[in-house]
Amino acid sequence: MSTPQNPAAAPTPGHSLKHLAVHLITPLLMCLGMALAYQSAFHQPEPHHLEVAVVGTTDQAHGLAQTIREKAGDALDVRTVDDRSAAERQLRDRDLVGAFVPDARSPELIVAKGNSDTSVVAATAVFTNVTDRQGVPLHVTDLTTPAEGDPTGQGLFFLLVALSIGSYASVAVIGAAGAGLGMAVRALVGVAVSLVVSVIGIVTAGPVFHVVDHDLAAVWALGWLYSAGIVLVGIGLHSFLKKWTTLALMVLFVMLNFTSSGGIYRPELQNGFFGALHGFWTGAGFLEGARSLLYFDGGAGLGGHVVTLLVWLLLGGAALVAAAAYERRGRRPVETPAEAEEEMAEAVAVAV
After folding, report:
1. At a CB cut-off of 8 Å and minimum separation 6, what does 113 contact?
2. DSSP code string of 137-166
3. Chain-wide mean pLDDT for the chain?
4. Cross-strand partners of 100
5. How far is 302 from 54, CA to CA, in rounded Å?
6. Which end of the chain has less Cβ packing within 10 Å, N or C?
7. From CA 79, how far away is CA 138, in angstroms rounded?
8. 107/340: higher pLDDT
9. 16 confidence band (pLDDT: 50, 70, 90)
């Protein structure tokens, strides 16, 4: 005769509801965070110290600049430049968004759309008002040439999104499925994964969709630095946060990152908080570095953007060192197989 088995007691409805409520905390916090971050960053784009210039040394040019300055207030920073070549130089250095060349019959606005298409739209609106009062059309000249597959210059933002999702979604898998591996091995896996993510990004953005049509190797290198920084930070945090790692990475590399990257609106069209983040956050480092390569011949602050990415990579290294020390003290939380599967499923669901 076989020995009867005692089936495990089925969970009570109250226990099941409590379990469900605990697991709903993460998506609800993500919803709240995304709503606050995206709507705060994008809901009301207005010029804020938008850098423009009037070209000329005449009294008329200085008077026009002064009039615009008085009417615009803090919305515009208006200066005069001596001649067209000086204006073009400042536009290529990304010190200006637009430079207006007054002319009674054919006024012209010189811009560099590769810097930011939305900022150029704002500058164009300002000087269209000027020429409308003159009763003449405004001619707009763009100093940059958009890639074949990216006429608005915003395709780089979607490359940033792809690199980010591939990076932070991989962290949960490495942390959960690789829980039995040492920190050094997980770090090496993370570097390898970030390499794969960066290759996928540059292949799709380059040969497939032609968002990146030159300097592929340099943009790929920026992408690898960017991805590796996210992955290493995430692996380090996972030792401390376990199932909360995905939420933490969403805050760091989506809510604060996408909104401050300059991919939709640069700081001159955002509030001060996201404008300040733009100066040192990793997404801005990648996006503005790629713009410098593709549209400004590798100038316009490329070195500073590379430094930003390297700093985030070093932060990832510091997180790994701290996590390794934490684990050596035997304080690393141990996940059950069910928790690991749950965490990986959550990370994939969030990424999708």
Report:
1. 120, 142, 144, 146, 153
2. PPEEEESS--BTTBTTS-HHHHHHHHHHHH
3. 86
4. 54, 109
5. 27
6. N
7. 19
8. 107
9. confident
From 257, 229, 253, select the one nearest 315 (Cα to Cα): 229
Confidence of residue 207 (pLDDT cuts 50, 70, 90): very high
Examine the pLDDT at 265 and tell me if it is beyond 70: yes
Q: In this structure, what is the dihedral angle of CA atoms 267, 269, 274, 278, given to the nearest 10 degrees?
A: -20
Cα angle 349, 288, 303; round to 5: 125
Query: Which residues are CB-neighbours of 259 under 8 A, at least 6 positions away?
Result: 37, 38, 40, 41, 42, 274, 277
Dihedral of CA 256/260/264/270: which sign? Answer: positive
How far is the C-alpha of 10 from the C-alpha of 133, rounded, in Å? 78
Q: Quick one: pLDDT at residue 340? A: 54
Q: Please, are residues 147 and 155 in contact by the beta-carbon 8 Å criterion?
A: yes
Q: Is 75 helix (H, G, I), strand (E, B) or coil?
A: helix
Q: Residue 205 in contact with residue 160, Cβ under 8 Å?
A: no
In this predicted model, what pLDDT tens digit does every residue of 317-328 receive, in sequence order? 999 999 999 888
Helix (H, G, I), strand (E, B) or coil at 329: coil
Among candidate residues 178, 188, 166, the one with its CA nearest the CA of residue 320: 188
Rounded distance, CA 216 to CA 294, Å? Answer: 9
pLDDT, greater one: 20 or 296 = 296
Q: Where are the beta strands (DSSP E) in the chain?
A: 50-55, 76-81, 98-101, 108-111, 139-142
* Tokens 């991919």 sit on residue: 263
Q: Partners of 150 in the beta sheet?
A: 147
Pairing of strands 108-111, 139-142: parallel
35-69, pLDDT tens digit by residue? 888 788 888 888 889 999 999 888 888 988 899 88
pLDDT (0 to 100) of residue 231: 95
User: What pLDDT, on a 0 to 100 scale, did the predictor assign at position 134?
Assistant: 84
Q: How far apart are CA 235 and CA 254, in angstroms?
A: 17
